[in-house]
Amino acid sequence: MIDALSAATLKQLSTRHHLYPFTDYKELAAAGGPRIITHAEGVWLTDSDGQKILDGMAGLWCVNVGYGRKELAEAAYRQLLDLSFYHGFFKTTTEPAALLSAKLAELCPPGLDRVFFANSGSEANDTIVRMVRHYWNLRGKPSKKTFISRQHGYHGTTMASTSLGGMSAMHGQGDLPLPGFVHVMAPYGFEAGRDMDAESFGRLAARAVEEKILELGPENVAAFIGEPIQGAGGVIIPPESYWPEINRICKQHDVLLIADEVICGFGRLGHWFGSQRYGIEPDFMTLAKGITSGYLPLSAVMVGDRVAETLIEEGGEFYHGFTYSGHPVPCAVALANIAVMEQEGLVARVRDDIGPYLRARLDEALADHPIVGEIRSEGLIGAIEIVKDKRTGERFPGKGKVGLMARDHCFRNNVIMRGIRDSLVFAPALTLSHAEADEMARLARLALDLTAKDLGIL
Ligand SMILES: Cc1ncc(COP(=O)(O)O)c(C=O)c1O
Asked: Which H or E element spans position 221?
């Protein structure tokens, strides 16, 4: 714990000097500055007041093996002493980068055998944009340039990855999307598919991609990108019919398929990758976050055979890369992280044990709640929709307001869940115990009771 005086100083210093990501600076300063997190173990954070907080979001959907794992810290320490840095630019590599590239190829679906390393999900998606355009040029189809993605999609914050994303508020800053990026509807059944059965709605949402391809002309469409489950857009879980139809559409119109697995990868859905859960047949996969459980920055682009072979055979030198592409320290941590996941059987645990267990506890605690319209989850990711009318799904006035109210009640009661529009979302570490799942469900109920009271309902 840090003493009250130094906590106050840290708040002052950061309010004065630190521009945080995704923050309204004026509002935060007026509220007294940020909460300072000092320590973490398992799924529990500690703040500078000594409060223990249950982290229902695994940081930013990334701390898959939980905080404070010695195996990962020791892997970093050993690698820092052996070889703190060397790059891959000039016909060199390092042992961790070589071993990790082979390990990722082993874990990924067949046909995704090559990897390009970067530092963040955003950089990995930017890398894919360059590779895709380079690929179509090499294939003699230079008009195939446009990327199709979805509303509420999130693919990062660089110019290209913000353009891929379907967040209109983000587009409003920086005159985005760039030309050549278009968006179609998300398979968001709770909002848009209430009047039809889930599978028909899944096919309808997939056909929106096909209609866009036909409108633009397949000769102009480079790729479609989607998260297997849309995370930051509000944990939008597609009906089972959605991805098989997307596979068909991309194949039929010769459009490359990119699965952005930054959140869904590394066990969150009870499979190593979301593509395995939904039978997606991607040409690229974007990996980040859970690859190191967030202990160090690392991302990876998995490249499918048809693109890799063209790039290798016909591409000459690929003029792309980051100083830290394949940095040996995060690669060593990623190997240790994957070893922990394998030794502890965490992927199967999510599918067969803790995923269904948490869901059952949330259903018990919340299904009858007057402002809960839907609880949906897959593995260890999910959302609780907050509504005014349980039967019709009618929302409260002022879109997003009740989501933030509920999120703030979570925060004040020491559980972290995220408010996205009018929902609370969760994605805890894959090591969450049954007792911790019970506590998460109890605290979610408390936060929603307090929200309902504020709204004059309970
Ligand atoms: C699906 C998805 N893609 C890409 C990104 C961007 O990753 P980063 O923040 O590491 O750039 C995120 C981040 O949340 C994400 O959820």
From this structure: strand 221-226
Alpha helices (H) in 253-389, listed in sequence order: 274-278, 305-314, 328-343, 346-349, 355-366
Same domain, 366 and 301: no
Q: Choose one of 289, 296, 418, 425 to mutate for the ligand 1 pocket test, by most ligand atoms within 8 angstroms of C-beta.
A: 289
Token pair 């109210």: residue: 405
The protein residue whose alpha carbon is closest to atom 3 in ligand 1 is 155
Please tell me the number of Cα atoms within 13 Å of 5 on its side-chain side. Answer: 0
Q: How many Å lie between the centroid of ligand 1 and the Cα of residue 450?
A: 31
β-pairing, 112-118 vs 299-304, is antiparallel
Q: Position of tokens 């605690």?
A: 365
Q: Tell whether 251 and 161 lie within a shared domain.
A: yes
Ligand 1 contacts CB of residue 263 (under 6 A)? yes
Residue whose CA lies nearest to ligand 1 atom number 7: 121
Find out whether the beta carbon of 227 lies less than 6 Å from any atom of ligand 1.
yes
With H, G, I as helix, E, B as strand and everything else as coil, classify residue 211: helix
Find the CATH number of the domain harbouring 332: 3.40.640.10
Distances (CA, A) of 200 to 6, 144, 224, 245, 275: 58, 30, 21, 11, 21
**Whether the CB of 245 sits within 6 Å of ligand 1:** no
Condensed to tens digits (0 to 9), the pLDDT of residues 32-79 reads 999 999 999 999 999 999 999 999 999 999 999 999 999 999 999 999
Confidence grade of residue 458 (pLDDT, cut at 50, 70, 90) = confident
199 with 108, same domain? yes
Q: Is residue 230 classed as helix, strand or coil in its secondary structure?
A: strand
Supply the range of the domain harboring residue 320. 71-343
Burial pattern 233-262, b for ≥16 Cβ within 10 A else e, equals bbbbbbbebbbbbbbebbeebebbbbbbbb
Rounded to the nearest whole angstrom, what is the distance from the C-alpha of residue 403 to the centroid of ligand 1? 21
Are 417 and 394 in a shared domain? yes
Residue 117 maps to a domain: yes
Residue nearest to atom 4 of ligand 1 (CA): 155
| Model confidence pLDDT, tens digit, residues 336-355 | 999 999 999 999 999 999 99
C-beta of 300 in contact with ligand 1 (< 6 A): no
* C-alpha span between 316 and 348 (Å, rounded): 42
122 close to ligand 1 (CB < 6 Angstrom): yes
